[in-house]
Amino acid sequence: MNVTENKASVLKKILSVIAAVAVTAGVFFAGFYTRKLTQPRYISVYEWAVGTINKHYYYDFDAKDCEGLSLKEIGARLDRYSGFYTAEEYKAVIKENEGAKSGLGITYNFVPDEGARIISVMGNSPAYLGGIRAGDTLIGGKAGDGAEGGVQFTTAQSFSEFIDGRGTGEKFTLTAKAENGKEEESFTVSKEFYTAGYTFYATKETAWEVRYAEKASSPTLFEAPADKLEYLPAGFGYIRLNQFYGNAGDEFGRLAEKFNADGCTSLILDLRNNGGGYVSVMQDIAGYFHAATSENSGVAMTAEYKSGRKETYKTYRHTGAGVLSADTTVYVLANSGTASASEALIGVLVSCGALEYKNIFLSDYSEEYLGFAGADAKTAQSYGKGIMQTTFVKPITKEALKLTTAQIYWPNGKCIHDVGLTVMDGCRPSRADWTATKGDTELKNICTEYLGK
After folding, report:
1. On the CB side of 436, how many CA atoms lie within 13 Å of its CA?
2. Cβ distance 241 to 285 under 8 Å?
3. DSSP single-letter state for residue 237
4. Strand pairing partners for 26?
5. Which of 74, 124, 147, 180 yields a CA-CA distance of 20 to 30 A from 284?
6. CB proximity list for 370: less than 8 A, separation 6 or greater
7. Is-contact 123 242, C-beta < 8 A?
8. What is the pLDDT of residue 183?
9. Which helix (H) or strand (E) holds 419?
10. For the chain, what is the mean pLDDT?
11. Is residue 209 within 8 Å of 234, Cβ to Cβ?
């Protein structure tokens, strides 16, 4: 028997088996990918969405209850912080959260028999640059620059229809209700695309606002003497933070540098009506407080997932002229619109000893506002959102799911979800006629009644 011939025979049989397995595998994968590529796109996205929810959603979810529903309807079955985005919708969300916005840049309540009361004005927006401020009540408008006639805002619909009817770049006039015996004030504005500014800084001597030049990625500070807060006590600086998006962290650092340069030793951090935003921006801002980045701390929050896994988020560590001394006395203004990342930042400052509960002021609303807001209105407390959302994006097609994925705990172990901060924690209530008033009477009262003594 020839040994060489025997080896060749065995090798031939092995190669035949390998070829057969390869053909079988090829047929299987060809069928698998053919099914994936030829099935309706909706089915592919549906399978991804349901699988993602089952794997990551913090609460119980039964896919059987969603059979036959659209993806939007499935998203609506989740908690109010979760939802489904088409690829186009998610692209718009990302752009806006990066600071690229369009329109006037206002939020408002429409008050019957009064008008559209402005609750907040985004920095660097057309409304802000046009002179509109929180607390203004808009009562009428004229299309065109100096056009005859006009519209009186008698209902919320009349206001929204007037604003919606204006094209981008079209100048128009808005008129604000007269206050304290003064004449009505008019503002010429237009809806534009703009980069949002999220912060504002003032002392009793001066004020600074954030602006972005066209296509600029970093903020420029402009002095705004008309917005200075003359009633602030000596040595106090005031920083308002609207949201935790875009360049808010960089902006805060620039204003903290101004705070230090002005020789201020007490900071009023205004988080009223700040509904939160990105965790990363909160970590960034926390890093400007020296006490929050000390060797014994440095923790921003802990997330606990449904599996029981815990993840620790650290504060960023900044150096330089923008870092606030550990000796800085911090006061915080909060209300029922203070939520999520805002509450988390408060948690960092409380946990590291930079902020005392007694130095947190919670808006205690008037009966007038509570009657307007309805039975679900909250007063003398923050919102109470201690859960985290994560956005999952489908590869290639780019649909997205935003899901509640974890419960959030402060560095000291406290969770404020569905509870918020209250006077029971030692916070102090502060009288507030509305969520925003002309001249900010709530802040003025706090300064004169509590901080100026």
Report:
1. 24
2. yes
3. E
4. none
5. 124
6. 377, 379
7. yes
8. 83
9. none
10. 89
11. no
| Residue whose pair of structure tokens reads 């979760």 in the numeric block | 82
In this structure, how many other beta carbons lie within 10 angstroms of the beta carbon of residue 179? 15
Taking a C-beta distance cutoff of 8 angstroms, is the pair 381, 418 a contact? no
CA torsion sign, 428 to 429 to 434 to 438?
A: negative
Helix (H, G, I), strand (E, B) or coil at 422: strand
Q: How many CB atoms lie within 10 A of CB 304?
A: 16
Torsion of the alpha carbons at 170, 115, 97 and 362, rounded to the nearest 10: 150
Q: How confident is the model at residue 296 (pLDDT cuts 50, 70, 90)?
A: low
Going along 247-350, which residue ranges are E strands?
A: 266-270, 299-305, 310-314, 329-334
As given in the structure block, the two tokens for residue 339 are: 């939520």
Joined together, the tokens standing for residue 158 give 């009349």
For residue 90, pLDDT beyond 90 = yes
Q: Which two tokens stand for residue 113?
A: 């028999």
Instruction: Quote the strand ranges of 36-195, DSSP E.
Output: 83-85, 100-103, 106-111, 115-121, 137-143, 151-152, 171-176, 185-190, 192-195
Rounded to whole angstroms, the Cα distance separating 301 from 299 reads 6
Q: 263 or 36: whose pLDDT is higher?
A: 263
Distance (Å) of CA 233 to CA 14, 238, 327, 450: 89, 10, 18, 10
Q: What is the pLDDT of residues 219-244, one digit of tens each?
A: 899 999 999 999 999 999 999 999 99
3-state secondary structure 322-347: CCECCCCEEEEEECCCCCCHHHHHHH
For residue 199, list its beta bridge partners: 241
Chain centre distance of CA 430:
24
Helices (H), 39-132: 41-56, 71-77, 87-97, 126-129
Burial letters 85-101, b for 16+ CB under 10 A, else e:
beeeebeeeeeebebeb
Whole-angstrom CA distances from 394 to 3, 46, 85, 391 are: 58, 11, 11, 10
Is the pLDDT at 30 greater than 60? The verdict is no
343 with 360: CB under 8 angstroms? no
What distances in angstroms separate CA 313 from CA 8, 162, 285, 340, 351, one per listed residue?
A: 63, 45, 13, 15, 14
Tokens of 181: 């015996």
Q: Given the structure tokens 């002179």, which residue do they identify? A: 131
Q: What CA–CA distance (Å, rounded) separates 274 from 335?
A: 9
Beta-carbon contacts of 173 under 8 Å, excluding residues fewer than 6 positions away, are 141, 142, 145, 146, 147, 150, 186, 187, 188, 189
Q: How far from 363 is each of 217, 271, 416, 433, CA to CA, in Å?
A: 35, 11, 17, 9
CB 332 within 8 A of CB 346: yes
Residues 302-327, mean pLDDT to the nearest whole number: 95
